[in-house]
Design a protein that fits this description.
Largest sheet: 5 strands, mixed
Strand content: 5-15%
Strand order of the largest sheet: 2-4-5-7-6
Number of helices: 10
Order of helices and strands: HHHHHHEHEEHEEHHEE
Mean pLDDT: 81
Number of strands: 7
Helix content: 55-70%
Structural class: alpha+beta
Shape: rod-shaped
């Protein structure tokens, strides 16, 4: 890549490139116009030379016709030959009168002058009161025809030269047109390729980096390899990303500090309320209020846990304590517990046998509880929620299916983003919109995957897969 043009701004590069293409087009057009002028001149010369040869032939025939009629008139005395002789002489005069219109060179003009002089002598002899002798007329006729023959030969040579020059010019035109077209095509292709190399890779790099940044990778930075507009845009993006990363880090630290300060009194409030309800005979009018305090405290604790996990996920501090466990057994325990506590829905459990995985039991319990809680929140009461586990080769799968409101296809992608709640379900249940986001990150931290299938008005199935041990 040339260090000069290719390191300038894209705008300047395009201007230079377009200037080169326009200049090449201008040169091609100017060359074609100049060559077209020469071809037109040569064509005109060929036309005049052909007319000169035609005039020479016409003049020769007229003179020979006049001589034939004159000789026959002298020999036979036939009066009907007089008009023929006069007509031939008149035709010869007309040809000689216009002969100079076909001249294109000084040599032709000289030969035409010679023909005009000889014709005047010939015409004077023919038109005299007493006809000249046959010997005199033979000499005059021979001299005139010789001059005409020389004029014919000169035109013949000139036509050959013009044709040769015309063919040579056409070959030059053909060669130059090919060279100019190939050169212009090379400039266009090379310039286009260089422009594509300057625009497409940086644009794709910036797009990929922006996608990573959008997915939560705040350390993503675009690779800047040029000093043009796209390079400046990449640097601006990197500066913006660095600033956002600093702000996000400060925000996470602030949130973690606030959560820590809130968590302790909240836990104490909940513990105290439980102790009062369990050990102290509270008045009947106070018990509903204490139960309300306990319920709200539990909600606050769940919110704190969700936000704490979110901060840990986004800062890369989500720590796991993996151990071998049976995924089917874990789901069975949760099912047995919730089947007793949950009266609003029917729970079903289907097991495909033991499926051993390497996982953090506490985190996986949170995943299953979160998915079950969502199924309960967004499906009508008395409907069935099915929990199923099965082994698939080297993968262990857990699936939960509800008969709820369902999720439109266009809304499904955003569910696994932070605060990804649907507008039409916000009035159905309370929540932070962090549950599925945390679930996805915990599953991915275990090397697994999560998949969602849903049909509006029919229900939703969420399935996770984890590596087996």
């Amino acid at each position: 890549m040339l260090p000069g043009i290719f390191q300038t701004s894209i705008k300047r590069y395009i201007l230079v490139w377009v200037s080169i293409v326009v200049s090449a087009c201008a040169v091609l057009i100017a060359a074609l116009l100049a060559i077209s002028g020469q071809l037109e001149t040569q064509t005109t010369r060929l036309l005049l030379d052909s007319r000169a040869k035609e005039a020479s032939l016409q003049l020769t025939n007229a003179i020979l016709e006049e001589r034939r009629a004159d000789l026959l008139l002298r020999l036979t005395g036939r009066k009907d030959l007089e008009p023929v002789r006069a007509g031939a002489l008149s035709e010869a005069r007309d040809v000689v009168r216009n002969l100079d219109l076909t001249a294109t060179t000084p040599n032709e003009l000289a030969l035409i002058t010679e023909i005009e002089d000889r014709f005047r002598e010939y015409d004077a002899a023919v038109s005299a009161g007493s006809p000249a002798s046959p010997e005199v007329m033979l000499g005059l006729t021979t001299g005139l025809l010789t001059s005409i023959e020389r004029f014919w030969a000169a035109n013949d040579v000139q036509m050959d030269n013009t044709v040769t020059a015309h063919e040579n010019l056409l070959r030059i035109v053909h060669g130059w047109v090919i060279v100019l077209i190939v050169t212009m095509a090379a400039v266009v292709v090379a310039g286009s390729a260089a422009l594509v190399r300057r625009i497409i890779p940086p644009t794709l790099e910036l797009s990929r980096t922006a996608a990573r940044f959008r997915e939560g990778d705040f350390q993503a930075r675009a690779r800047v390899s040029s000093r043009d507009e796209l390079g400046a845009l990449g640097e601006m993006f990197n500066d913006m990303a660095a600033d956002i990363e600093r702000r996000e880090k400060a925000r996470h630290e602030f949130i973690a500090s606030v959560f820590h300060d809130i968590k302790n009194p909240t836990v104490n409030i909940g513990a105290t309320t439980r102790m009062i309800l369990r050990k102290s005979p509270a008045p009947e009018q106070a018990r509903p209020w204490l139960e309300r305090v306990l319920a709200e405290t539990n909600r606050i604790e769940d919110l704190i846990q969700d936000l704490t996990d979110t901060v840990q996920v986004e800062t890369g501090r989500l720590t796991l304590q993996p151990a071998e466990l049976d995924l089917s057994g874990l789901v069975r325990e949760i099912f047995s517990e919730q089947a007793v506590l949950l009266s609003s829905h029917r729970l079903e459990f289907e097991s495909g046998g033991d499926c051993m995985v390497l996982g953090d039991r506490r985190r996986l319990e949170r995943v299953i509880h979160n998915l079950l809680s969502n199924a309960v929140k967004y499906s009508p009461e008395k409907t069935t929620i099915t929990l199923r586990t099965e082994c698939r080769g080297d993968r262990a799968a857990f699936r939960i299916t509800d008969r709820g409101v369902g999720i439109p296809p266009e809304d499904q992608a955003g569910l696994f983003q932070p605060f990804g709640r649907l507008a039409h379900t916000r009035s159905m249940a309370h929540g932070t919109g962090l549950g599925l986001y945390i679930v996805k990150r915990i599953v991915e931290a275990h090397g697994g995957s999560i998949r969602l299938e849903s049909t509006p008005g029919t229900g939703t199935t969420v399935e996770i897969e984890l590596p087996r041990v």
